[in-house]
Design a protein that fits this description.
Largest sheet: none
Strand content: under 5%
Structural class: mainly alpha
Distance between the termini: 162 Å
Helix content: over 70%
Length: 148
């Protein structure tokens, strides 16, 4: 019975030895592809770290862009407000200029009328003396427009 057990143990040991040899052979076969896989994985790891750094940088730049866009939006609103004010002031200026032109035309008309009246007055003999003696009329006559 012991002999049988010993033979059985021997068979099992041989079987185990064959299995171990086969396992060694498989491990050797697996070792090369694993080495080939290891380099690309290391490279991938480096690239992922680099990507992570770039993503952090991108995030910072995007936040900066967001701040700048908010500033730009505020400036654009200010510019729009100023442009509306400028338009309003320009319309007001146009109205005032038209008013000034009307007033200047009126002034010219009144000055011509005054000149005509003064010439008529100068032609009257009796009034000539009064005009020469009156200080205000004298002052008016000294003006270039009134001399005539």
């Amino acid at each position: 019975r012991l002999e049988r057990l010993l033979r059985r143990l021997e068979r099992l040991l041989r079987r185990l030895e064959r299995l171990l040899q086969r396992l060694e052979w498989l491990l050797r076969r697996l070792e090369r592809p694993l080495q080939r896989l290891e380099r690309p994985l290391q490279r991938l790891e480096r690239l992922l770290r680099q990507l992570e750094r770039l993503l952090r940088r991108l995030e910072l730049l995007l936040r900066r862009l967001e701040r700048l866009l908010r500033r730009l939006e505020l400036l654009l609103r200010r510019l729009e407000r100023l442009l509306r004010l400028q338009e309003r002031l320009l319309r007001q200026l146009e109205r005032l200029l038209r008013r000034l032109e009307r007033l200047l035309r009126l002034q010219e008309r009144l000055l011509r009328q005054l000149e005509r009246l003064l010439r008529r007055l100068e032609r009257l003999p009796l009034l000539e003396l009064v005009i020469r003696e009156h200080p205000l009329l004298q002052l008016l006559l000294r003006q270039p427009l009134m001399r005539r």
